[in-house]
Each structure stands twice: as C-alpha cells, then as structure tokens.
Amino acid sequence: MNRKVRLMLENVLDVFSEEFKDKTIAWDRMLEFLATDSRGSMFYKFDHKFEWFFENIEFANSVIRVYDHMLLTSDYYDHLGEIYTDRVAPEDSARGLKARIVKSDLADSIVSKSMPATEDRKKILFPYCATGRLILAAHRRAPNALLFGVEPDINLYRIAYTNLTIHGIYAFLLHADPKRHQLQLSRADGKLNWQLANNWNPQMDSMRPISKKIPINSPN
User: Fold this and answer.
1) Global pTM value
2) Is there a smaller number of Cβ atoms within 10 Å at the N or the C end of the chain?
C-alpha cells in the first residue's frame, strides 16, 4: 500500500466535501470524477454532464491542484473502499461493512490459494465482490481471465467499478442480489441479466427473477 495515494485521495475528498457539504453527495461526485477521468466513456453513464465541475473554475482548480492520476494508477490497493468505510458510511453501517469486506492482504491470500497463476482466458465469478478487492487480486493472478462480480450494495458496487476503471481492468459487474437473481451464463435468464452489467445506475429493479419450476400436483 502506498500511503501517498491514500493521502492524495483524502485531500481530493476534502475539496469535494468543502464544495458539496453533504458527505454522501461529495463522495458520489468524487467517484464519478475519478471513474470518468480514468475511462472517458463513463461520462455518458451519469445523470449530469459535470456542470458542477466545468462551470466552477475555482472548484475545478482546487481539485486539479491536489489530484494526481498517475499516482492513483500506480497502486492496486483498495484505498477507496477504506476511505468509504472510514469517512463516508454511517457509523452503524461502517461496522457491518468492515466485517463483510475482506481485508486487502487476505484477499491476495485467498486468491493465490484458490486459483493458480495463469495466462488462460478462464471465467471467474465473485458472487459478492464488495469493493472489488478480490477482483483486483484475481486480475493480477490471471490477467487474461473473464472476470464477473455481483454486489447488492450500490455504494460498494460503484467503488468496485471505479477501482476497475482506474486500473483499466475490464470486467462484468452487476448490481444485483445473488440470492434472488439468476447469474449462470448457461441459462437464458443469466445471459439476459449480464447484459445489464457495468451500468452506473441501479439495475436491481430491471433484473429478471430466478426461474422457478412450478410444482405439478399428482392426481389422486
């Protein structure tokens, strides 16, 4: 972990927090800025066109003074996930999130023990990808793999998506509940569901339900 990256992101969040006051809005705007700066096509996924940035020169200059894109991409550590749980998430939620999000060093250990290093184009699914730490570790272990991640918490999903854009990792992410929705590509519902991958806005209302067989009562 590069502490300089964490400090830089903390400073950027401070600038956004000063501008937007509400910490949730400030966080969302910062994520959108980071994602779009890393992958230009993200510009079209938001409900705004960054008028709050382009039309406020003083604010834009303040962001540019502290933001370092090259420094950000130099470290694969999930700084965004840690900052979110430390500074943004409500206190009661943060405790639960920290318990659910696997620690970064443990993520590397889990992936290294569960999958061999390979150049093959294999498929890897993470049913609860949280902020993307396991996906980042899997990409380093299998750089050519087709990566799939599912996360029911929209805030964690967006952090994972931003982490992937920062490091130029292409993966398929769904905002969905794995307990309620079909994810297997071998099934018709699964194929349709994955067509909704990589949207920034929530997709859960559009997800198809798991197909269930209707029980047939035997005649008496």
Assistant:
1) 0.93
2) C
